[in-house]
Amino acid sequence: MNKRFFLAAAATALATGLSPAAAQTFPSRPITMIIPFAAGGPTDVVARIVSEAMGKSLGQAVVIENVAGAGGTTGSTRLTQAAADGHTIMIGHTGTHAASVALYPNLRYNPATDFAPIGLVNTNAILITAKKALPANTLSEFVAWVKANERTANNAHAGIGSVSHTTCLLLNSIMGVNPQTVPYRGTGPAMNDLVAGQVDYLCDQVVNVAPQVRAGTIKAFAVAQMTRNQALPDVPTTTEAGLPGYQVVVWNAMLAPKGTPAPVVARLNEALKAALADANVRARLAELGADLPTDVQATPAGLQAFIESEIAKWTPVIKAAGVTASN
Ligand code: MLT
């Protein structure tokens, strides 16, 4: 254990009554990382890359547990019920920890006050994608097709409040359409059905989209950010493709339960930062098109402020869309 961690552990032990030995020996067993969506989707993929590297620096395995349901709010609620000792953590995102506030009147947690933020993991561009057989090859052809087929067209998503749900809500409102939506327990299974041609379109994170676009199994019409994505340089931005109003970047954040001792959070943050500095992790995330957080976003305090700003940003968007959900 390094000296800084020892001193921080001793200070927290005094302040919280936690025994200095308990704070110093963290982690004393494998850590469970709750992923609030199905395996194989973007949250799960990023988590598996980062958790493996974190396990090496923590000296204990970080084991993924997929707890899917209710747009990620089921797994997030589960974390608030776990012991606040750092041995259970999670990766939440724009949906579970920002959009959920306006979407779920009965949300069982407050994303701004019921968690101990560890650090932002990554940000992700959203891409507008469709099944290969959809008869459109450009974004404007896609918009025309959805408008002409509004009554029968559908878009897949990972549950009410998930990123794929809220970002397609935005897209649909910009296109002025209200198609059917098909919920899944994550965009891993939603992507499988898009590839199989069972659903028409999906607004999904580049991490989940890049391998499929490279394999030619789906179409990607545009990336909803100002610059092209490093993983898919041939896909135009929404501005280049004629829909400049559709700009949205989403994120993954690592969190512990509220009340987790500060030195334990600091140790987890150190491990997260070490993982994000690892050349292999960086290469894998870059290949998938994920972007790394800023130095400030990667701190517990920076993530706290970021989550609060994201709740403030998404609440009016969801209210304007007039959608609510139950969990
Ligand atoms: C989402 O749409 O919120 C995510 O893509 C869910 C997931 O990681 O599967």
UniProtKB/TrEMBL annotation:
InterPro entries: BUG (IPR005064), Bug_dom1 (IPR042100). It comes from Phreatobacter aquaticus. The keyword Signal applies. It holds the Pfam family TctC. Keywords: Signal. This is Tripartite tricarboxylate transporter substrate binding protein BugD. Residues 1-23 form the signal peptide. Belongs to the UPF0065 (bug) family. It comes from the Bacteria.
